[in-house]
Amino acid sequence: MRALLPYLALYKRHKWRLLLGVILAIITLLASIGLLTLSGWFLSASAVVGVAGLYSFNYMLPAAGVRGAAITRTAGRYFERLVSHDATFRVLEHLRVTTFSKLLPLSPAGLARFRQGELLNRVVADVDTLDHLYLRVISPLVGALVVIIVVTVGLSFLDLSLALILGGIMLATLLILPPLFYRAGKPTGENLTQLRGEYRQQLTSWLQGQAELTLFGASQRYREQMENTELSWHDAQRRQADLTATSQALMLLIGAAAVMAMLWFAAGDVGGNAQPGALIALFVFCALAAFEALAPVTGAFQHLGQVIASATRITQITACPPEVTFPQGQTERPTQVALQLSGVTFAYPEQPQSVLRHIQLSVGAGEHVAVLGRTGSGKSTLLQLLTRAWDPQQGEILLNGLSLSQFSESALRVATSVVPQRVHLFSATLRDNLRLAAPSASDEALKEVLIRTGLEKLLEDSGLNAWLGEGGRQLSGGELRRLAIARALLHDAPLVLLDEPTEGLDAATESQILALIAQVMQGKTVLMVTHRLRGLSRFDQIIVMDNGEIIEQGNHAALMAKQGRYYQFKQRL
């Protein structure tokens, strides 16, 4: 239960809406009980008085009460659903935003141990499961408790002993069955949550790795593993359905026993009246209707195990301390950037070998530096350290003579433009995809940067309103690279980090992009990771890395004259 406490605190923000939903639910339940109770008594009393009661029996007042209860029940049910779902969706929105805001400081270091499918499942499915806490647990439980009190007090005016018998049966049912079915349903709920996460993770991995799995002949084996997980998931759902049916059957049995008890005891005496007549029907129908208020409670506590398991899974992520922390307050944004790396050594968590070893690098303000090396030599990791995605275990990174850790996150992000290897295309308009880098950029500026990066074809149909991503136009690998470069140009930061910006481009487009980088990024400090050696003569420094170390460093002419590793690379072209 402790796992739910942080999420119950979020409900305080919408407590009045939630309270109104509970009140409307109680009014609806009481109106339903009143309708059936009054109707049963009214019909029985009318039958007892017969024709002789046309002038002595008041038909109008009970009839008006029946109509009033029916109208109240219908209106109460409508507004209860309206208010409760509105409050639940607001809580869910707040929960999603809160969860995501706690995930952001963890990225990427704190989230590296979670797979993408697992993260998606926890952020989406597990968060959605928490909405059961109000609709299926809190509201039915409070409503049932209030109904027991009101029914017992109301019937006590007619017969105290019968009221206490019915109230005692209902209270015992409320105190015994929910904990019983919570215990019975907890293992199944936890298993359901775990299997759901495993299945969605396997499905995501299978879809993303379809080409590789097919190429190596592992697709069928992976599919069988996924089907086995699905069968286990279905089996857990079947067990939960059986438990739900058992709880409903037991509730019907107890309700029927309560009705029979009311019929037995009321037949002998009601409030000292040895011939109670229609009052027998009143107590019987009241018992029948009152147990409808208890029906959702056992099922609610049966699902509580699944809710707690989802809350625990979310807390496992959100409670993690961030690996990288930034100082509070604003730091002045630098207009120019000079970098100094002194003895930087870095290893990924739980990895025995260092990715970078004793890196010594000095980059002056406005210098353009190309970083070469084979895959796995630490080039991309070097760029990640400059954005403080990670912090080095040894050494220091200085930006304009100040430690990188002294800059606030906003100042560092404003001062840095990054073109990553994997460029994300959002399902949105072309304008929205560009304005991620510059929210205040005009349409003219967006069109200009598209033309400069060779993406003018994207403007042919719907212009900046063209829909990209899912349900719209998909971009090729080269177009995605140019889109990322366009974002970097719009961001207009003094430090530009490019990770394979020309990968996937043809020779002509590559030359165009390199010329564009040299032209528009004059005065900016540029570090570009690349495997391709075209156009490197434009760079002020060229660094060759291997096994996490800088093995060669200098300008193009000096490295060619040295005839070292860089010279060998050039000779192979």
From TrEMBL:
InterPro entries xref list: AAA+_ATPase (IPR003593), ABC1_TM_dom (IPR011527), ABC1_TM_sf (IPR036640), ABC_CydC/D (IPR014223), ABC_transporter-like_ATP-bd (IPR003439), ABC_transporter-like_CS (IPR017871), P-loop_NTPase (IPR027417), Type_1_exporter (IPR039421)
Query: Domain ABC transporter: where?
Result: 339-572
For this record, an example GO cellular component is: plasma membrane
Main location per the UniProt record = membrane
Q: Can you name one GO molecular function term for this protein?
A: ABC-type oligopeptide transporter activity
Q: Which Gene3D superfamilies match?
A: ABC transporter type 1, transmembrane domain, P-loop containing nucleotide triphosphate hydrolases
Q: Which reaction does it catalyse?
A: L-cysteine(in) + ATP + H2O = L-cysteine(out) + ADP + phosphate + H(+); glutathione(in) + ATP + H2O = glutathione(out) + ADP + phosphate + H(+)
Subunit info here reads: Forms a heterodimer with CydD.
- Coiled-coil stretches are none
Instruction: Identify the Pfam families for this entry.
Output: ABC_membrane, ABC_tran
Membrane-spanning residues = 16-35, 41-61, 133-155, 161-182, 249-267, 279-301
Task: Domain (ABC transmembrane type-1): give its ranges.
Answer: 19-306
Organism of origin is Phytobacter massiliensis
Query: What name appears for this protein in its UniProt entry?
Result: Glutathione/L-cysteine transport system ATP-binding/permease protein CydC
State the family named in the UniProt similarity comment for this chain.
Belongs to the ABC transporter superfamily. Cysteine exporter (TC 3.A.1.129.1) family.
